[in-house]
Amino acid sequence: xxxxxxxxxxxxxxxxxxxxxxxxxxxxxxxxxxxxxxxxxxxxxxxxxxxxxxxxxxxxxxxxxxxxxxxxxxxxxxxxxxxxxxxxxxxxxxxxxxxxxxxxxxxxxxxxxxxxxxxxxxxxxxxxxxxxxxxxxxxxxxxxxxxxxxxxxxxxxxxxxxxxxxxxxxxxxxxxxxxxxxxxxxxxxxxxxxxxxxxxxxxxxxxxxxxxxxxxxxxxxxxxxxxxxxxxxxxxxxxxxxxxxxxxxxxxxxxxxxxxxxxxxxxxxxxxxxxxxxxxxxxxxxxxxxxxxxxxxxxxxxxxxxxxxxxxxxxxxxxxxxxxxxxxxxxxxxxxxxxxxxxxxxxxxxxxxxxxxxxxxxxxxxxxxxxxxxxxxxxxxxxxxxxxxxxxxxxxxxxxxxxxxxxxxxxxxxxxxxxxxxxxxxxxxxxxxxxxxxxxxxxxxxxxxxxxxxxxxxxxxxxxxxxxxxxxxxxxxxxxxxxxxxxxxxxxxxxxxxxxxxxxxxxxxxxxxxxxxxxxxxxxxxxxxxxxxxxxxxxxxxxxxxxxxxxxxxxxxxxxxxxxxxxxxxxxxxxxxxxxxxxxxxxxxxxxxxxxxxxxxxxxxxxxxxxxxxxxxxxxxxxxxxxxxxxxxxxxxxxxxxxxxxxxxxxxxxxxxxxxxxxxxxxxxxxxxxxxxxxxxxxxxxxxxxxxxxxxxxxxxxxxxxxxxxxxxxxxxxxxxxxxxxxxxxxxxxxxxxxxx
Length: 741
Prior knowledge:
Blueprint: H1 16-26, H2 32-46, H3 59-70, H4 75-83, H5 86-89, H6 94-101, H7 103-113, H8 116-119, H9 124-140, H10 143-157, H11 165-185, H12 189-203, H13 205-221, H14 225-239, E1 246-251, H15 254-264, E2 275-281, H16 284-297, E3 299-300, E4 306-307, E5 320-325, E6 331-338, H17 339-347, H18 368-379, H19 383-395, E7 398-402, E8 408-412, H20 417-424, H21 426-430, E9 432-437, E10 440-442, E11 454-458, H22 475-508, H23 514-519, H24 529-537, H25 543-550, H26 552-561, H27 572-582, E12 594-595, E13 605-607, E14 619-624, E15 628-633, E16 649-650, E17 652-653, E18 664-673, H28 678-688, E19 692-701, E20 705-714, H29 717-728, E21 733-738
Parallel strand pairs: 2-6, 12-17, 13-15
Antiparallel strand pairs: 1-2, 3-5, 4-5, 5-6, 7-8, 9-10, 9-11, 14-15, 14-16, 18-20, 18-21, 19-20
């Protein structure tokens, strides 16, 4: 069942009776009256409209319908193809279509046509919005995607008629980035290959011509090789009792060859699998029988065997793949499958679109990837983020892993236990604290491999870490982590902003009122007081400016006082003295520092890497635009660069009681004797005192001593002091001091 090229059709339009006959040839129960009415309605509505090619516009819906008949789709899909441009390009309305053809057809037409307006936009945001709407539409009925793919297929076949080269490239890039991967996802490999190859011809004309020229030469040189290999394979299989076997060879598409050349960084001549041979049999048992016969006759190429019968691809693809040094000593790729599997491999979901009464379109909902796209859509902050994550999902190769109960989970290559946890369930991902792979504890950033059995440990106290986003690869995991970070970050900006604004009003001696804040929202382009607090916490709006906006008289007084009064420029020493005197208990009340209790590092607050502050240190906050507050120790040398911007300094402190939550990194400079066992002694002392080495770097070597910088996870400054004392008491350690760098 081939997907015809435009040149395969007659230049005249498909006539009404021909279209009906095509459908009834594979679906005798098709609604002939519905098809006839749709044909006449579409022809009348499009009237004298012309395409860029000069053909009557109605030829396009007809060609789309023709492509769908070759996929053997149901009458509703064919009717949708005939009508899919009427609402957008004629005076037809959705209400009229519903009245004439029923609600099901109207819904399908709406799902396809509402995308067209956005496709003409070149802006990336519009492209992303287009894809978002497509996902929503096809999640309700997969036939929307099938019609859209046929529509894109015909548009690509006539792309050369568009005069604007930039528009041609945009359409080709969108085809390569979105529609070809979607065709692959639903198993329509023939359509995917055609879309990719036509897009490739537009995006890299010279590259494609080079591959085609080499293929033509190879075809000429090996004209007799393919039939001879096919005949020998057929004879070999029939000798083993496979009387009904069918063997045929196929040439890979120019784009797939080009992509493999780029991925493997090899020349055309170095590729060994430009030709692939298919062995088609009747049953699954015969698939394995054929595999045994081929492996028994020819030498197997290592690492080329894949069993997609026991582990089908996510799009339902099933086949056995192997590579052998076959007839004529050619290295060839062989795919073995049943006839049903072959139909599925060629045409995906369209191949098993049985023409049932009722809701046959619900078959499309079995695709797990589509449900995951909807989850990503729900968690993404906007269309562009959604497009980014889904392109990640569609372009990566898969690995197959198992839950402890044996359930198969398919993930992109490079996935980690965090990706696995989110693939099982969003809640498991959010609360993941550890993982075992094949019974062995592994880091959460461990890369999973085919066949791994993964067991996830969870805790109700756990929340997603912003660090996870650095190593997860699935769109679902990235979207969930980003959503959590966005939500928690806003909560923390709100909390921090409220404290900062309250402190600013207290320092000014003026009262903070809701009415006063409401009156200055427009000054700072904020919609609500809550948004104002969040903007202050994020460092986008200075708290002092809000106070001055509410009480303009304060600004006048400050101006009269002049800079010499120390109101606007605070020398570094004076600022440090003031902060030391203010205390850092974090308790409520005038003069108390703003507590950073419960604020997750990397969100509203960031701990400076120059001084590595720890609970118990005297600290100061520096407001960083768009990032909240960066925490430094009060004697950090970096603060010199902020001496002339006192408005960025804020008093911050650890939580009341000095108790710490979680682990912090303290940095030590350690000088050790250059002798055997020194490193072991040092690490043993740190471990015995409940410290965990986060990083270690040797910065100076001499004949007698080594200087090293050691980052250690500790609870607070007292914990680091205990480790420091223990290290100093160790004979092989010459000196220990806290490092500020």
